[in-house]
Design goal:
Layout: E1 9-12, H1 18-28, E2 32-37, E3 51-52, E4 55-56, H2 57-62, E5 67-70, H3 76-86, E6 91-94, H4 100-103, H5 108-114, E7 119-124, H6 139-145, H7 167-190, E8 195-199, H8 200-206, H9 211-218, E9 235-239, E10 244-248, H10 252-261, H11 276-281, H12 283-294, H13 299-309, E11 313-315, H14 319-322, H15 326-330, E12 334-339, E13 343-348, E14 363-365, H16 373-379, H17 385-393
Parallel strand pairs: 1-2, 1-6, 2-5, 6-7, 7-8, 12-14
Antiparallel strand pairs: 3-4, 9-10, 10-11, 12-13
Helix pairs in contact: 1-7, 7-8
């Protein structure tokens, strides 16, 4: 069985993270991704660490399995070549600042006229409309402006905290991938492509969960509350005798089980804790009681008791332990990429498990800048090797 996107061709003009992460997901789903890079310089993230033997593992982790061509879009001949390539693809992805494509003479109007079936997906900091549209943005700006930094961290420290990975970029990449798949599906009925406009700021608002609702009910902006859930209790990390672990008591039946496991059945019918609403209201009383109890055993001891009782729990794994996790290994979530400089490098596998996609843990090559110039330019555009040599001399590719 073929992969779901096996016949889809994507021209990827994006760089760094939000765009490349999106096209990596689509590549994992079977799409042929042609990465367009500036001659010699390439994607900015080729210069981002960590490095191994001079090679960026950052770049390798999100560009595996793609093809790379070099093309100078500021050169008039480069623009002509891009428009010819557009006629051969289904999707174009870019994450330039809004207006950049128009300045290059390859904006949506021209692309749509060149290939009416083209799906044009643009991911940017603030989107292609609105008063902030032309402002520069990075992940940390999206986290700050979208509110997530204001609810992350510890109340007693009172310092805004960035989420520990680039959730602004990653979230935008996920919504871009969703939009592209929806547009591909709609095209099967209409025969036409469309423009997809994804804003990192919009995406941060979309994942705020219940923060806006709590503000409207309570009349004041939510503040950081550490590692607990704002409306479910107990649902947080606790310190055992030796380290931290988490539990998630998501309903009253689990609360009863927990009270039995910790050998404090008197808490079951305590009116202060008898249901989730009361437990959350009286959280300042409940949490110290539980902290004293959990401090009497080690994490392993508590986890064994919780496991036998069906209570949702987990130790807080460091990355070395994550890479040895048997569940992740069983799900083939560790894959290998390769370059001559680095040898094998372990990266995250494809989390989208489908019956049409065999789990791949094989080595997937990471392209050099322009590695596939001859393949793409000869087979797609009919250029000769002499043409390619001349274009290279002219600084076009």
């Amino acid at each position: 069985m073929s992969k779901p996107l096996e016949n889809v061709k994507i021209l990827d003009l994006s760089r760094v993270l939000a765009g490349p992460f999106c096209t990596m997901l689509l590549s994992d789903l079977g799409a042929e991704v042609i990465k367009v890079e500036m001659p010699e310089k390439g994607d900015d993230s080729r210069q981002f660490g960590p490095f191994k033997n001079g090679r960026s593992l950052y770049f390798m982790s999100i560009n595996r399995g793609k093809k790379s061509i070099s093309l100078n879009l500021k050169n008039p001949k480069g623009k002509e070549i891009l428009l010819k390539l557009v006629k051969n693809v289904d999707v174009l992805v870019e994450n330039f600042r809004p207006g950049t494509m128009e300045k290059l003479g390859i904006g949506w109007d021209i692309l749509h006229k060149t290939n009416p079936k083209l799906i044009y997906a643009a991911s940017s900091g603030f989107g292609h409309t609105g008063p902030y549209s032309n402002k520069p943005s990075y992940d940390i700006l999206a986290q700050a402006m979208g509110g997530i930094m204001s609810i992350t961290g510890w109340p007693e420290i009172n310092k805004p905290t960035r989420v520990g990975m680039s959730i602004g970029d990653i979230t935008a990449s996920l919504f871009t991938a969703i939009g592209i798949n929806a547009a591909l599906y709609q095209r099967t009925f209409t025969g036409l492509g469309q423009k997809i406009d994804i804003s990192m700021l919009d995406c941060q608002l979309a994942i705020l969960e219940n923060a806006m609702l709590r503000y409207q009910v309570e009349g004041k902006p939510p503040k950081p509350i550490g590692n607990r859930h704002p409306t479910i209790t107990p649902f947080q990390a606790f310190k055992a005798k030796d380290d931290y672990f988490v539990i998630g008591i998501g309903n009253d039946n689990l609360w009863i089980k927990l009270c039995e496991v910790i050998d404090h059945p008197e808490l079951i019918n305590d009116p202060r804790f008898i249901n989730n609403k009361n437990r959350t209201t009286n959280i300042d009383i409940l949490i110290p009681l539980l902290e004293n109890i959990f401090a009497t055993k080690t994490v392993n001891e508590w986890c064994e008791l919780f496991e036998n009782s069906g209570i949702p729990h987990s130790p807080i794994n460091t990355i070395d332990k994550v890479m040895e996790n048997p569940q992740l290994k069983a799900r083939n979530m560790f894959a290998e990429v390769f370059s001559p400089e680095t040898g094998k490098v372990i990266i995250a596998g494809n989390p989208i498990k489908m019956s049409s996609i065999p789990d791949e843990t094989n080595i997937r090559e990471v392209p050099e800048i322009g590695q596939h110039n001859i393949d793409i330019y000869t087979h797609w555009l009919g250029l000769s090797e002499e043409d390619i040599i001349n274009l290279k001399k002219e600084g076009v590719i």
